[in-house]
Amino acid sequence: GKNWIKAMILTASLFPFLHFAIGFALNTIAIFYGSLAAIPFGTMVVMFVLWAFISFPLVLLGTVVGRNWSGAPNNPCRVKTIPRPIPERKWYLTPSVISLMGGLLPFGSIFIEMYFVFTSFWNYKVYYVYGFMLLVFVILLIVTICVTIVGTYFLLNAENYHWQWTSFFSAASTALYVYLYSIYYYHVKTKMSGFFQTSFYFGYTLMFCLGLGILCGKHSLALMIAIHCNV
Question: Where, by residue number, does the polypeptide cross the bilayer (predicted)?
């Protein structure tokens, strides 16, 4: 589209800078408490240099190549210049409800595994069933894609053609339920207390959930775009 420069900048900087902001806040807290968990300043500079001279140029290169490779949009049907008004629909067919409900089944598929992941990370238990984790990850992707297909079908059946962001958020909402589960795990399964431990627990969990949400949303949206372009 016309805003490809803005989209490129957001793609290259939004996710890394969100993690940088969270990491910087946690690092400040660690320095204040004199903890060994504080990240050295030199390491932070190296990470910024890697982003500035490797990650960002690769995103720029991919954007330029993608625009020149794809060419003009090849719509499978004629597109009107005037958007058609979306009719009234029932409350459970709204994009917000579909997005929130879309993450329930994917979270249910990884619910048990998340307990062992949190236990190994926060209770310092050894995790060794990586093959089972790979299987759960594949199941997560399959369930997420299936749920997104059903949610997008209901949205299109209600004559709502704004399906792109709904397809993304219906899959990305899995991370919301993982974060809610982390709150339960913190209060029931851990003995953490104090501002330092609490901030590190929820800060790093938030970083993990952001990555999980983008991962699930990206795969589901990519598949839905492929389906709509070939059907």
Answer: 7-33, 45-70, 91-118, 130-156, 168-187, 199-217
Please enumerate, as own/partner, the contacts of 114-123 that have beta carbons within 8 Å and a separation of 24 or more.
Answer: 114/178, 114/181, 115/185, 115/189, 118/182, 118/185, 118/189, 119/189, 122/185, 122/190, 122/192, 122/201, 123/189, 123/190
Count the neighbouring beta carbons within 10 Å of the beta carbon of residue 229. Answer: 11
- Of residues 79 and 41, more confidence is placed in 41
Query: What total of structural domains would you count in the chain?
Result: 2
Is 182 a member of any domain?
yes
Indicate if 66 and 172 belong to the same structural domain. no
pLDDT at residue 146 above 90? yes
> Domain range spanning residue 103?
92-231
Claim to verify: residue 68 and residue 96 sit in the same structural domain: no
**pLDDT at 82 (0 to 100):** 78
